[in-house]
């Protein structure tokens, strides 16, 4: 390991985020920053770190892909039997982090995850490449020491649906909507004096937000 890691330093100089830059609806800023990120790296700009915790409070994080933004929150898809799915079943409170180093920006989101409707999950599953659909049927996501090995199970799945034009969505796979309760926009600034603005949803209105400035 590089023993000089503690000496690594970077000053953030590219942008700033002022109160006058903030829209009343944070989803506008989320979409704007997402568009900026897409213009720099269209391959994985929608990758986000999703953190969950089980009923005992043990945390777990992994990268998943954002698939849509609405006025209420954000959406992703996964295997409901995975560790994240089991965690959400026990404790729906989750957090999400986006980081775009090219823009010296990050977004932190907190909210509750709920399963999408069957219609939404069916529609998205139908849009996936056939190989991804077969993979969803095959993988026992997060399970250890599964026999036979996944390579053999893939062959079995391909054979199972060989004569099927439309592969149906397995009932253990689908989407989650994260209803955003708070969202923080972080813009890197020189001397670690970063711009941080946190939106909190008003409990009395789904479309009203308060905005606080946070110390860096």
**How much helicity do the residues have?**
10-25%
Which ranges are low-confidence, i.e. pLDDT below 50, for 5 or more consecutive residues?
A: none
Number of strands: 9
Distance from first to last alpha carbon: 29 Å
**Overall spatial form:** globular
CATH architecture annotation = Roll
Structural class call reads alpha+beta
Task: Calculate Rg over CA atoms.
Answer: 20 Å
Give the overall average pLDDT: 94
Number of domains: 1
Order of helices and strands: HEEEEHEEHHHEEE
Q: State the helix count.
A: 5
At the fourth level of CATH, the homologous superfamily is: Electron Transport, Fmn-binding Protein, Chain A
Determine the CATH topology.
Pnp Oxidase, Chain A
Describe the biggest sheet?
9 strands, antiparallel
| Beta-strand percent range | 25-35%
User: Tell me, what is the CATH class?
Assistant: Mainly Beta
Features:
single chain, Pnp Oxidase, Chain A, globular
Would you mind describing this structure in some detail?
- The protein is of the alpha+beta class and 216 residues long.
- It has a single domain, classed as Pnp Oxidase, Chain A (Roll).
- It has helices at residues 26-40, 83-90, 118-127, 130-138, 150-160, and strands at 47-53, 59-65, 68-69, 73-79, 93-100, 105-115, 173-187, 195-201, 209-213.
- Strands 1, 2, 3, 4, 5, 6, 7, 8 and 9 form a 9-stranded antiparallel sheet that branches.
- Strand 3 and strand 4 (73-79) form a beta hairpin.
- It starts with 25 loop residues before the first helix and ends with a strand.
């Amino acid at each position: 390991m590089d023993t000089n890691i503690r000496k690594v330093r970077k000053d953030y100089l590219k942008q700033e985020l002022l109160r006058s830059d903030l829209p009343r609806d944070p989803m506008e800023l989320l979409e704007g920053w997402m568009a900026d990120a897409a213009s720099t790296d269209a391959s994985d700009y929608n990758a986000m770190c999703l953190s969950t915790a089980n009923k005992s409070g043990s945390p777990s994080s992994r990268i998943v892909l954002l698939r849509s933004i609405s006025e209420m929150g954000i959406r992703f898809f996964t295997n409901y039997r995975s560790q994240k799915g089991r965690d959400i079943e026990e404790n729906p409170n989750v957090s999400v982090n986006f980081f775009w180093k090219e823009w010296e920006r990050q977004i932190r989101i907190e909210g509750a995850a709920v399963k999408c409707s069957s219609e939404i999950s069916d529609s998205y599953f139908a849009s996936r490449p056939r190989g991804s659909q077969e993979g969803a049927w095959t993988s026992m996501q997060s399970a250890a020491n599964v026999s036979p090995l996944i390579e053999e199970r893939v062959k079995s799945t391909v054979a199972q649906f060989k004569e099927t034009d439309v592969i149906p969505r397995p009932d253990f796979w689908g989407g989650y909507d994260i209803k955003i309760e708070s969202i923080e926009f972080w813009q890197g600034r020189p001397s670690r004096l970063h711009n941080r603005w946190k939106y909190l949803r008003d409990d009395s209105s789904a479309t009203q937000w308060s905005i606080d400035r946070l110390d860096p």
